[in-house]
Write a sequence for this structure.
C-alpha cells in the first residue's frame, strides 16, 4: 500500500486550480477574545457544492485516463460525496452514476440529479449497496470512487489545509473533523509538510468515536452507525489509507457532543454569519472545549477547518431555534 | 454643502486598512445559471460587527482631532450604526455614548455595551432622541455622528464598492440597498470613478420607497416609518448629502417586497451558506427581479452588495422556516 504524500497534495492543488474555489480564511475577534486564541477558519462551506468533498472527488476524476473518462465514474453515497462526484463528472465531461438509498432526502436526490448524474436507487433494508455498485461498475466499465479511502481523494482533501497554512502562516494547532478520515489524513499530509510543529487533532462525534478507539487499539475498530446530528461523520470505520496516515501524522483524535455542535452552529450563524452543517462544527467545538479545559495555550494560532454547509433548511432552522 | 468625492473614498480606504476586514467577494454558479448573469457578491455580512456600517463610523471617528478624541463620539441608533460607533470608538481609544430606545432588543443593547459604549436609554413614546443626544453632546463636548448624512460616513461606506470593483473588475450593474442613502451614495462615488459605464441601482423595501419618490419628485420626500422586515431600511427620508449624490450619480431607485427578501435570505442560506439580514437581501432581490423581467442583459456582470448579517437568531430561524 503506497500512501499519498505531500507531493500528491501539491499535484492535486494544481489540478484544482480554476475549478475549486479558493475558499476564504475568516477571522473572528469575538472568538479570539472569548476563547483566548487566534483562530483561522478555513471555510469549506463556501466550496463548490457546499463542502470540501469536491476537492477529493475532482482530483480523483481528473486523473482518469481516456478510457476511464469515456465510461465515467460511479459512487455510492447519500451525502456530500454524491454531489461532489456528480459535479466533478459534469465539469470534466464524463458520465456519473450515484447509488443512493431510495429513502434519501428528496433535496439530496434532486441536487445530485441537478448536477447531471444518473441516480440508481436501492432499498437500504433488503439490498447491498456495495454489491449493486460493483455490478454496475463491471457492466459499464465505470471507475468506483470511494468517499475517503483512496490516495487521490485524500490528496485532494489535503489542499484545503495547504491553502489555510499558506494564507494564515504556520499554525500551532489544526482541528479537522473526522468521519472516514479523508480530510483528516489529507490535512495531516499538508500540515506535517508546511508547519512541522503544528499539533493536529481529528475530531469525531462523541457517539461515533471509532477513530479514537482505533488509535488507542492500534488497529481499525468498527462500530455500529452512530446516532449523532453530525451526519457527515456517521462512518463506522476508518479506511486503510486514512488510518495509516492518521496513526503516523495525527497527534490525537478527540470528540465533541451534539450539544457542543449546536452551540458551534449558533456561534457561526450569530457571530460569523455562516451556515455550517453539524459535521462542520466538530473542529471548532473541540478547539473551544480545549480552551475551556485550559489545554490550549493562550493566544495559540489555531486552524479550524469548517468542512461544509449542507444542511436542510428546515432542520437548520429547528436546530438554531432549540439552542 | 461640499459633497464628498472619490478622493475621500480613497482616503477612507487608507484609514480603514488594518482595521476593517477586506471582505470576500463570493460567486455562485447556481445564481449565475438560474438568473443568467455573472454575480459578484460583496459580503459585508462578514465585516466587523456584521455590517458595512463599521466602515463609515470608523472613517468618521478616525478623522477626529485631539480634543474630539478626548471627549468622544455620540450617536443615536437602535441598529447597526450603534454597534459601529461603539466598536470604532473602542478601537480608537475614545469614549462613546449611544442613545437607544429603552425597548430596543436586549441582544442589541448587550452588543453595544460589549463594545464598551455607554448606553443612554430613552422612552420612544414620550422623549425626543435628537434633543437628548444634542443635550448630552453639548454637556460633554462629544461629537455627534449621524448614521448616514455625513461626508465622512458616506466616504467610508464607499470603500466596500471600491474593493468590490477592484477585485471583480468593471461591472455592468451595481445593486445596493438604500435606507438613508449612505451606502448607496458612497457606492455611487466609487462606481462612477472606477466603472463609469456601470448602471447603479439603489434598492428600497417596497413599503418604504421614500428615496424612489424623492428621485421622481426632485426633492426629499418624507414618509411614515414603513412596515417591512428590512429593519435597516426603515428610514423615513434621505439626507441632504446622500440625496444630492444619489440624484447626480444613481441611475434609479427600485424596490423589493418582503416576500422577495425572504426568498433571497433562503437562497443565501441554502446555496451560499451565508446568514444575511433582511436588509442585506434587498440588492440581490432587485437584481433577480430584473433578470426575471428580462431587463438585465444575459451574462451581465452584476455587483451585489450584501450589506449585513445582524439578525436575531430566533427571528432568522422563523423566517427560514416560513419561506
Amino acid at each position: 500500500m503506497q500512501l499519498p504524500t505531500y507531493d500528491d497534495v501539491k499535484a492535486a492543488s494544481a489540478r484544482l486550480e480554476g475549478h475549486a474555489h479558493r475558499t476564504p480564511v475568516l477571522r473572528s475577534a469575538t472568538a479570539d477574545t472569548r476563547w483566548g486564541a487566534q483562530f483561522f477558519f478555513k471555510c469549506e462551506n463556501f466550496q463548490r457544492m457546499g463542502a470540501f468533498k469536491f476537492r477529493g472527488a475532482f482530483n480523483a476524476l481528473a486523473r482518469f485516463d481516456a478510457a476511464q473518462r469515456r465510461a465515467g465514474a460511479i459512487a455510492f453515497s447519500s451525502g456530500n460525496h454524491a454531489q461532489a462526484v456528480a459535479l466533478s463528472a459534469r465539469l470534466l465531461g464524463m458520465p456519473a452514476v450515484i447509488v443512493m438509498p431510495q429513502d434519501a432526502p428528496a433535496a439530496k436526490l434532486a441536487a445530485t440529479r441537478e448536477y447531471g448524474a444518473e441516480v440508481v436507487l436501492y432499498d437500504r433494508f433488503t439490498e447491498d449497496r456495495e454489491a449493486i455498485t460493483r455490478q454496475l461498475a463491471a457492466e459499464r466499465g465505470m471507475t468506483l470512487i470511494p468517499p475517503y479511502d483512496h490516495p487521490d481523494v485524500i490528496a485532494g482533501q489535503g489542499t484545503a489545509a495547504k491553502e489555510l497554512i499558506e494564507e494564515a502562516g504556520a499554525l500551532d494547532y489544526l482541528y479537522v473533523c473526522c468521519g472516514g478520515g479523508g480530510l483528516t489524513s489529507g490535512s495531516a499530509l499538508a500540515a506535517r509538510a508546511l508547519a512541522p510543529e503544528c499539533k493536529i487533532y481529528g475530531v469525531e462525534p462523541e457517539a461515533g468515536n471509532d477513530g479514537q478507539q482505533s488509535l488507542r487499539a492500534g488497529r481499525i475498530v468498527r462500530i455500529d452507525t452512530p446516532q449523532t446530528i453530525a451526519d457527515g461523520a456517521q462512518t463506522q470505520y476508518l479506511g486503510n489509507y486514512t488510518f495509516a496516515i492518521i496513526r503516523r501524522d495525527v497527534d490525537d483524535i478527540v470528540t465533541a457532543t451534539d450539544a457542543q455542535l449546536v452551540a458551534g452552529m449558533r456561534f457561526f450563524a450569530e457571530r460569523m454569519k455562516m451556515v455550517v452543517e453539524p459535521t462542520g462544527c466538530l473542529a471548532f467545538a473541540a478547539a473551544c472545549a480545549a480552551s475551556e479545559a485550559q489545554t490550549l495555550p493562550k493566544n495559540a494560532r489555531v486552524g479550524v477547518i469548517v468542512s461544509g454547509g449542507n444542511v436542510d433548511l428546515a432542520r437548520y432552522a429547528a436546530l438554531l431555534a432549540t439552542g
